[in-house]
Amino acid sequence: MTALSGTIPVFASLEGAPIALKAWILGMLENMGMPEPFLMLVSIQLSILGFFSVFLLLFVLASWFERKILARIQNRRGPNRVGPAGLLQPIADGIKMLTKEDIVPVAADKVLHACAPVLIILPAFLAMAILPYGKNMTPVELEVGILLFFAVSTATELAVFMAGWASLNKFSMLGAMRAVAQILSYELPLILAATSVVMITGSLSLTAMVEAQGGYLLGILPNWHVFTPWGFAAFAMFFISALAESNRTPFDLPEGESELVAGHMTEYSGFKYALFFISEYLGLYVVCGFAVALFLGGWQAPLPFLTFIPSWIWFFAKILCLVFVAMWIRGTFPRVRVDHLMNFAWKFVIPLGVMVLVSAAVWHLAGRGPLGWILSLPPLLIPYWLMARAYGRNYDAGGRVYRFAE
Amino acid sequence: MNATAYILLGILLIASGTGAAVLRNPVHSGLSAVVAFVTLGMLHMALGAQFIGFVQLLVYIGAVAILAVFAILLTRPEASHLPCLRPLRRAVAGAVTAGLVLAALLIAIFRSPSLNREPGPVAEAPVAEIGELLMTTHLLPLQTIGVLLTAALIGAVLFASTNHS
Fold this sequence. Notes:
The structure holds two protein chains of two kinds. By secondary structure, chain A is mainly α. Chain A has 16 helices and two strands. A two-stranded antiparallel sheet of chain A has the order 1-2. Chain B is mainly α. Helices cover 77% and strands 0% of the residues of chain B. Chain B is built from six helices and no strands. In chain B, helix 1 runs antiparallel to helix 2 (26-46). The mean pLDDT of chain B is 81. The chains are: A mainly alpha, B mainly alpha. The interface between A and B is medium-sized, with 20 and 21 residues.
């Protein structure tokens, strides 16, 4: 804690507030004479309830926020009838989803059809357990944290496949095949980008990664991984792959409505459909949380004199910034074509991902300083330039044509 | 390791493994095999080998199971006209194969020196140790596997590109 936190007691007490609240509840139960195993159970449940409720609240806010931002980008007003500025719209949507009829196709595989929406929401919740939300605020301290994220996120592919196959609908199946191929292809760059951070930190634990990004260069510049040559490239790769993994625009073609109705979600209605929807947003939050922890300094403050603001506020603020960027991209870019998507992953991002590893190794061996900057840039820039030249040789976009309204 | 957890996971493992073998629908048996992989990973984790457990999940579900399910999907079982043995011969052939595999496994298990060894103390930092060992003692096998995988990758690209032209 810096000296400033002493002068602003509100923030100083907020820093440990979630932990203090938990300790207070547990202490109260202990005074009431509860047995030890029960207290342990309550302690676990309180942590789960904490991030469960925070993320579901964030989901509710995001669904409103996304519609407002898209409306702003498209010169509309967005939701504005339910509650002030449409803020209660998500609640109205939730009631609608809950009261809708749950339709299961006659020919569908009933069990798998019902399992898929439950399974698809699982990875996001499991991965939430290992995010470092603040100083000493990691719910489950795992030595192999980052591996858990990649291991459980594979369940998404299976759930999408189950949903598509069990629906017995050609649009569902085609959408699921596309989605699985896409998630599989973009899992590789995601892992490669994260591996570079593992190489530099020398640990698979997220807490260790965040702590390695502490401190400030020259007393002002944060020591985040994104401010290094390899870190910047890896962050860009990670974010692009994260958008593809969570089926966000411009990579939302598994559910391209003009050709596939709604992809693997075509035959779902009512709350099962809502579960797919929720899992998409929660997945986005979680993967942005990992991006923040890996590259953007986790709960570290961006400037030394801002450390008086509690660490967990910084963490959530950074997540929300990334989620905002994802919404901004959704409002700006058109959907990519399926062959472009695959070519981009396999011929461009994955080779660059290997070069990011080389660059990170050079950065480490060259002393992580000015020399590292000079030596670790060429392994990134030369392949980038060569690939861009090679792929762009036969491509002529034509001149830019402006058409104005008369 | 907790005995209750071991028994529960064991029951789940046997049930899902049996399901993978006996379920009629190939996609169902594929997914049942996935449950078996997950349970196996959980057993590793319950034994304290977190790294092995998660790698098991990552490799077997993320890659092997997805590929298997895709392969099942792309081959249509009801439309295949593969030569098939008669039911009685099929049962005998299955029993003989299963018996041979079981015998091989049992011999391997009972001849393994780890049966007579006392369980050693759990290492403090297994992941770091695994990495250390891979980079020093087992460097040659690691590099060999790397070369093998690179060859497989190049081979796959070659196959794909010659089919196109």
